[in-house]
Structure formats: structure tokens, C-alpha cells
Write a structure and sequence with these properties.
The chain has 11 helices and 15 strands. By secondary structure, the chain is of the alpha/beta class. It folds into 2 domains: about 230 residues, DHBP synthase (Alpha-Beta Complex), CATH 3.90.870.10; about 90 residues, no CATH class. The strands form 2 sheets. Strands 1-8-2-3-7-4-6-5-9-10-11 form an 11-stranded mixed sheet, sandwiched between helices. The chain has a 4-stranded parallel sheet with strand order 12-15-13-14, with helices on one face. A hairpin with a 6-residue loop joins strand 2 and strand 3. The two termini are about 20 Å apart.
Length: about 350
């Protein structure tokens, strides 16, 4: 497999679109994380995503769709109808409020949506990304791009082009030339963690439900749309990011409730402590401390890149002081808990 990083000039974008048309894979930027994309209407292309990532075939993908010409019900319906059926009015209200943006809607899939995208389910996840390069690629392609994050399944999501290159370079010899990967470099992702996922498939019985928290919060959705949103306690709707072990570093990651001053480390322990808290570090003797941003948006933007960097340091353990319980931290707590669950595996 050949891997090439290209820029995001008009020539580079046209090259990436041509690669997609030929059933190739691209690594491309969104405002959340970099995606591993294939055109969503070609089974042969979508299958390559699962093979390259090592992703279970029943784990559905999100389809990224082009932006509407105008922010109206009519134009968003035009974008949704090739992919979804029985589209509720709530979906159009959400699209007008948050698209392009980091919100994924789960809807009943349209008849022509391929099983390779949905994992054989009757639902499909759709979003319109708020990233200039991604939107131009989608516009020129003229159809949806199926794309999970551009990393091996369960590993840390990438937030720049170099992360994507580093992720797949170690396994490139395992794949033939038909898996050539073009990585479109448009710099760092603005948000840094995956989109909020909201379920609209059973509104009459269950209402709107958050399946995966993101940086668009329940409060923001309710304030901007007037809709009432709940959280899913027993989630049976298939969607991306639902595995308990996900976003995981190879170094064991342990989330701890105790303040640093109460912890005891071995003199020879080669570990590191991460915290957003304003803690007294004067008693610390044997372990380096890395202070984290104390606001959720800033931490979200850097957390995956930091975990990747720490994975290269050969630490025995990454200790993370538990994040605050405020709702603004929900999405990052979700990612880090899953990262801790899956951490320490080669």
C-alpha cells in the first residue's frame, strides 16, 4: 500500500476526488477528527475501510454529505433524501441549526443505502462537516463519503495528517497497491473529538436521544431548536463509537479520583500524571506532571494529540485525574473512559 500526504490546494482536492471516484481511500480533515473516507455508494470502496482499519463489519459508518445550497427545509431535504426515509421535521430543524457542523443524526436508511455502510442495520448516520476542504471534496464528488476516524479500530483518533500517516505506515506492507491512501493535509482539526450523535429513529416512542456526547451539548440543542432531548440509558441503536474500548493509547491509562497529594508512587516508576485541577504539586517527588487545559473545548482540541505523544515516551502508566462532573465535560469524559478501558493493548 502506498501512502501519500498531499495538500489542500484546488489541484490536490481534485486529485483526492478522482481517487475517490476510482474507489480509492482518502484521509481527509473535518472539524472534529480526520476521517478515512470512501464514496458511500460503492460497496467495494467501503469494504476497504473495514479491511484497512480492522473494523468489525457490523459496526456502522457515518456518511458525510455535501452542504445544502441554502439553509432551508427544502434544500436540506434534498441532501437527506438520497440517504434517509421517513425524515422527521426535527431532522430539518437540527440541520438548519447545526449543519454544517459536528452533529450526526441517526435516521431510517433509504432503500438504496448499501449494507456495507450501515453494518446491515436499517438506520444510517448522517452529518455535514463544517470544514472548508471537506466541503469542497464533497461538493466536487457530488455524493456522500462514508468515513470513520482515520485510525486502526479502537485506537486514538487522528487530528492532523501526520497522525493518519503514522497510524497506517506500520501495516502498509500487509496491503496491496489497491489500498493506496491519499491523505489531504489541511492542518489541525478545530474541535478535536468526534461529533455528537443524536437518534431520531423512534421519536414517537422514545423522543430525541443522545447516543454519543460531543461538543454540541444537549443544552445547546434545546436552546437553538426548542426540542427536548434525552439521554439513552440502554442504547440498542447501532452507531459509531459505541464500543466500551475505543480511542485507546497503547500505554495503560488509569483514571483516578484521588488528588495527587494522596498518591504514592514507586521511586523507579516511569509514569506521568495528567490533571485539569489546580493541585498542590509540592509533595510530588517521583513522577512528572502534565497540567491540562482547564476548559473543555481547549482540552478536546489537544487530548488525542497528547495521548499519541505520550504513547511515544514509553511510560509505564498514564494517570489521569478524573474530570469535573459538569455537563460541559461529558464528551471528553466519555472518550477518556473508553480510552482507559481499551488502553494497554498492542
Amino acid at each position: 500500500m502506498n501512502i501519500e500526504i498531499i495538500g489542500n490546494s484546488s489541484i490536490d482536492i481534485s486529485k483526492s476526488v478522482a481517487h475517490l471516484i476510482q474507489d480509492g481511500l482518502i484521509g481527509f480533515p473535518t472539524e472534529t477528527v480526520y476521517g478515512l473516507g470512501a464514496r458511500a455508494d460503492h460497496p467495494e470502496a467501503v469494504t476497504k475501510i473495514f479491511q484497512l482499519k480492522g473494523r468489525p463489519s457490523n459496526h456502522p459508518l457515518i456518511v458525510h454529505i455535501p452542504a445544502a445550497k441554502e439553509n432551508t427545509d427544502f434544500y436540506w431535504m434534498t441532501q437527506l433524501e438520497p440517504w434517509a426515509r421517513d425524515i422527521p421535521s426535527e431532522a430539518l430543524r437540527l440541520a438548519q441549526a447545526f449543519w454544517p457542523g459536528p452533529l450526526t443524526m441517526i435516521l431510517q436508511k433509504a432503500k438504496g443505502v448499501i449494507d456495507e455502510v450501515t453494518g446491515g442495520n436499517e438506520t444510517v448516520g448522517l452529518r455535514c462537516p463544517n470544514q472548508k476542504t471537506a466541503l469542497e471534496i464533497l461538493k466536487q464528488l457530488g455524493t456522500g463519503i462514508a468515513a470513520p476516524s482515520a485510525n486502526r479500530f479502537g485506537k486514538i483518533s487522528p487530528t492532523n495528517a501526520e497522525h493518519v500517516y503514522e497510524e497506517f505506515s506500520p501495516i502498509r506492507s500487509s496491503f496491496s497497491n489497491e489500498f493506496d491512501l491519499l491523505i489531504v493535509d489541511a492542518g489541525e482539526c478545530e474541535i478535536g473529538i468526534e461529533s455528537t450523535i443524536i437518534d431520531l429513529t423512534n421519536i414517537d416512542t422514545h423522543g430525541l436521544r443522545i447516543l454519543r456526547p460531543g461538543m454540541i451539548s444537549v443544552k445547546e440543542i434545546e436552546d437553538k431548536t426548542g426540542l427536548i432531548v434525552g439521554k439513552v440509558a440502554d442504547n440498542k441503536v447501532a452507531h459509531s463509537g459505541s464500543h466500551l474500548a475505543h480511542y485507546a493509547p497503547m500505554t495503560p491509562l488509569k483514571i483516578i479520583e484521588s488528588p495527587l497529594a494522596q498518591l504514592v508512587f514507586q521511586p523507579s516508576e516511569n509514569s506521568i500524571y495528567l490533571s485539569v485541577m489546580d493541585e498542590d504539586l509540592t509533595s510530588l517527588q517521583n513522577i512528572p506532571v502534565h497540567p491540562l487545559p482547564t476548559d473543555a473545548k481547549s482540552l478536546a482540541k489537544i487530548i488525542y494529540a497528547l495521548l499519541r505523544e505520550l504513547d511515544k515516551k514509553s511510560y509505564k502508566t498514564i494517570y489521569l485525574r478524573a474530570l469535573p462532573q459538569d455537563s460541559q465535560w461529558d464528551a471528553i469524559r466519555d472518550r477518556l473512559q473508553r480510552a482507559a478501558t481499551g488502553s494497554g493493548r498492542s
